[in-house]
Amino acid sequence: MDKDELFNIHIDRPDKSIYDEAKRKWDLLSKPLDGLGSFEGLICRLAAMQKSPDIDISKRAAVIMIADNGIVEEGISQSGSEVTRAVGDALIKGISSANTLGRYAKTDIISVDVGIAGEVSADAGNNMVSALRNKDINNGKSEPLVTKDGLFYDKKVAFGTKNFLKEPAMSEQETLKAIISGIEVAYDLKEKGYKLLITGEMGIGNTTTSVAVLCSLLGLDAEVITGRGAGLSDAALKRKKEVIKIGIKKYCTDNKKYLHLKNDNERAFYILSCLGGLDIAALAGVFIGAAMNRLPVLIDGLISSVAALIAERMVAGVKEYYIASHKGREGGHAAALKELGLKAFIDADMALGEGTGGIMALPLIDMVLDFYNNASVFKDIKVNEYERLS
């Protein structure tokens, strides 16, 4: 797949008639009309996405893209890249935050090395990670490693990105390869029977790359929306803002190549390549691949929402399959969700990453879906149903 093929991907819209059928079912249940608020619309959207009022989200997975960012060398993070690898190991071993929450939410954890600056530990999983590079003789593709709580995919594009103050974070080829990797993971999970995906990430420095991309896309002021990420001193936060502003000036506001780009998809791809990360690019691919397969996909925090916005800019219509799980602590998160026209279901000032906000939303969605499937109707309690008067 080249860029032109990517930009010309067609996304089927969710089925409006199925949405209306699900809405009618809600109105027959013994409760005030729209009594469960936005949750009712969410269930209707799920039905429309799956083209059936009988919704199935029983098999679901959090897809966590893991990658390092060269911009870390500019002192914009409290931690170094060794933490990215450590959390990658923990995800495989089943001891990360996402694993713990995922077990409660009955959600598999799919971790993907798309750009760790090193290799995950050989003893992190039940088998040697190097076995991933062996080809399956039946289908000619590398099979994922089965882990404690799900799967691990080796999709490494590079050992982290470059420092975007010195050169573009990724080449065009690396960016495209990362996007395609995300699409491939979404397709493979569809083949394995998954009905819903959550998007998550892990990569030290990725709030810097995300804010740089978001400000470039929406013309926002980095001084206002840049947050402390996993925790920064005042001096480090000042440096982070400075780095982002220099990057935007270098590749966008003062860049003739960028200024001559006319299409949203070309601009989004260019911004992603210059200022983004392999995790953001791969997550954009997951969003695109999910929509191509009519899979509902939950947006997690800032990084996930920026990837969702990039995906929609590159392939129009992808956002029809988005669900916003929560509104996080980073100011850019709310800006991205607003641009996408989405309302989050949890507002709890979270900033944990790893898809954890999306995972935490699932028990709520399960509860509402159970009500949709099992609540009594008005005739059961011998009460006339409500009528819509406007």
Strand content: 5-15%
Low-confidence stretches: 125-140
Average residue-wise pLDDT: 92
The spatial strand order of the largest sheet comes to 3-4-2-1-5-6-7
The rounded distance between the terminal residues' Cα atoms is: 49 Å
Name the assembly state: single chain
| Percentage of residues assigned to helices | 40-55%
- Helix-strand sequence: HHHEHHEEEHEHHHHHHEHEEHEH
Overall geometry comes to globular
What's the total helix number? 15
Q: How many runs of DSSP E, i.e. beta strands?
A: 9
User: Structural class, from secondary structure content?
Assistant: alpha/beta
What does the main sheet amount to?
7 strands, mixed
**Radius of gyration, Cα only, in angstroms?**
21 Å
What does this structure look like?
With 390 residues, the chain is an alpha/beta fold. It is 46% helix and 10% strand. The chain contains 15 helices and nine strands. Strands 3-4-2-1-5-6-7 form a seven-stranded mixed β-sheet, with helices on both faces. A two-stranded parallel sheet has the order 8-9. Strand 6, helix 13 and strand 7 form a beta-alpha-beta unit. Helix 7 runs antiparallel to helix 11. The chain is globular and about 70 Å long. About 4% of the residues have low confidence.
